Amino acid sequence: MRKPEFYLLIFLVCLSTGIYAQTKVNSLQGLLPYLMQDNVDVTLAPGTYTITAKDIKKGNFPETTVVKNHVNVLFLISGNNSNYDFTDVTINVKTEVFAAFPNKNEELYEIQIIGNNNVVKNLRLVDLGSVHDAPVRRATNIVMDGANNRIEGFNISTKGSYPYGYGEAFGKGGRSVIKHRKHSAFLVRGYKNHVKNCTIIHRSYGHALFMQAADKPLIEGCYIEGEMRSSDDMLAEKGTGSDADKLDFKTVFGYKLPKGYMMSLGEGGIRAYNGGETVIDGVEYRRGTSNPTIINCTVKNMRSGITLTHATGKKYVKGCTLIGNERGFCIGNGDIVDCYADTQYGPALGVDYTRDQGTNADITLLSYKGESYNGSGHAAIIIGSNHKITLRSAVSNPDQNLKINIGGDNHTIGLLQRDENYSASNIILHNLTGYPVILDENSKNCTGISVGKVSDEGFNNHVFNNSTLNK
Asked: What global pTM score does this model have?
């Protein structure tokens, strides 16, 4: 017979390794109490669960405020060291819920984590309703605070914002000519939080996956897909009495919507901000995003693919593919390793500011079906200084109307009235594609090689044409 000390040892081992008996619950109301507890392992019975406005009015999901005022949270995970498994579970949130809480000025988070060391996995989360069913203020499907949490295997269908169908044409941020009520899918904050193998199908004006006040976030293996619409199609609303028609298509940029651009109806695919607030161990912090890592992600049909310009610290992007976005990669400084992007609707690579320096990028430019709808005319636009850029080719007949510009004018849809002429210096470019290179008059001390033709209007540049490099 084993001694009591043996069983005590087994208990202590289980306690130290976080192994606890699994609990199965059969309803959303049965789940809620476990979200506040430490060291639990909970599964929700397979099936489809639907949250309606009646559930809110009945008080089934009490009002909750975390981090900042005026936020309601349907599912608040405040415990630590717990596992929540939603395999074969779908939770539908009817879009009527966005306006169902008593205080109409409040924001909605569908799920928020503020505890530490939690794993939440395999949930299908669906906004059920019309793309036009907007929140009263703002909404976000998932918000990650706390530290060392992981959300894995989620499938998120985001829907419901106002207006939907114009992208940024009539407003973003603090400026708008049509007041926006945005709805984003996934916000990462906190410390060392991890988003793994999640899918976001984004049919809303707002960001798909974005970071604020996040230190060392890891985004891995995610697929993000938005929706595109041409500015020509928007202009075809003339005479219909639509929101855009009522404004005679006068955009937030100060001029009439131009033809010839393809625009995402969402915002950033994966985006980092230099501000925000988060809560860790009950303490609130205001800070920017730092040290983000993005690995093996795919972003399709968003305003930007991966934009990390406003993050600080080490920025690392590897094995990512960007398809049909208004712009592909833009990280300001840091590493882009073994990545892929097309140029159908916008440049594969951009740099936001002339103060940006130190991007080390290796990107293969992909072919695409159909014609180019790239209003900027750029395959890439490189400004700033001290970048090392290698562009490889998977395109047999690159469009010669698309240029790799070093310095010069950005030509994006929101900057058409500016005389930009951005400078570029000390750029090392290995252009192994057939796209032509234009060295602007404001470029200097740039070096490299190019399969495509080279036009040099700058100073002391040495980018040499060698058409045999890709053979």
From this structure: 0.94
